[in-house]
Amino acid sequence: MTCFIHLCILLTFIFTASLNTARAEENTLNVAAFKIANVLEPDGTGTYDKLLAEVTQKTGITFNIQVLPIARARESYAQGRFDCLIPLDTVFEARHQDHLTSVPFYEANLYAITRKSDKLVQSIQELQSMTVAGELGVPYTPEIDALIKTNKNPTLAGAVRMLRASRVDAIVAYTPDIQEMIEHDHITDIHFDPNSPIATYHDALTCRPTDTNLELLNKINHALLEIFIAQEQLQN
Fold it and tell me: Domains, the chain, ranges and CATH?
């Protein structure tokens, strides 16, 4: 009789543990993340990392984030090895229109940067007749990729050096990355118009179209809206 009771307790423990594990898995999203300085960092100190940590506190949803080089993150998500991709990738927007996206949580502005001895560039059309460079692996629209062609440097710093050495007429870069570099390195011979981005992208979380992901994204969206409303109230 005692052995039977012990067996029942053991089976109950195993069942409860399995149930808790299943619930935990249902509340976990495996996310492939682009490695972007100060935005998505392997140590979780990036701006988006902190935002998702706040979402976890509000929803109980765990984000199992793996920060990868951009090309590898894209490929891994396309192969189905992750539930979600962050940030929203314009390369996948056209191919995966049925995929789910969260509400936008950041507006990423892309600028054309030129030498101060040259005029400011305020539109993609103005770049058509120029030699343009960008950063390797960074997502751009097909239109901008066509302008850059093979003029891609492994780093933003390298692209800036190309511009300053007059190897190209202009480079394209996102803020705050380019602004932080200009300020940190005290670069005074290049410029851009902060009021005239040549393109604007709304960063979000992109996930596979499953019922579970839809349910989790609804909770995530609700939490994000709460966070944004609280932030706006603090500013006012």
Answer: 28-105+204-235 (3.40.190.10), 107-201 (3.40.190.10)
